[in-house]
Amino acid sequence: MKRGTSSHHRTTRTRTPMKVADTTVLIDHARGDPALETYLDDHADETLVVPTIAFHELAVGEVLTREESKEAVLANLGGFDVRPFTSDHAYESATIESDLRQRGAYDTSLSDDILIAGVARSLSVPVVTRNTDRFESFKGVTVESY
Q1: Which of 22, 67, 129, 140, by CA, is between 20 and 30 Å from 77?
Q2: Does residue 14 sit in helix, strand or coil?
């Protein structure tokens, strides 16, 4: 799996499939998790991008546990491409949260996952995560595990 690219290389025939990384991907990549590495190898022709929300979650953990600098946290991303959170992502996240609230299933611990899911849903691509149960409760979000 391609870990994102900042270049805008385009092909005229097909686009490389994209997927959105949950924070578990970043954590497991840093730990060298064999299941994740196998998944990445098996999906090498796809692009995996990191929403700024996932970067935030990773940074909180890194700063709290090791007082890491921004540069150190970015270095721990291992070449993944961090993408900004947009108004389209925010709107989709809001509709996911609204649905959860209407069903009585909203919990504040889901906040970051809702934002990440909103990114994936706005792009019509899957979220890759180890925490499939959390994301599968969000309507209209496709989830892949490793």
Answers
A1: 140
A2: coil
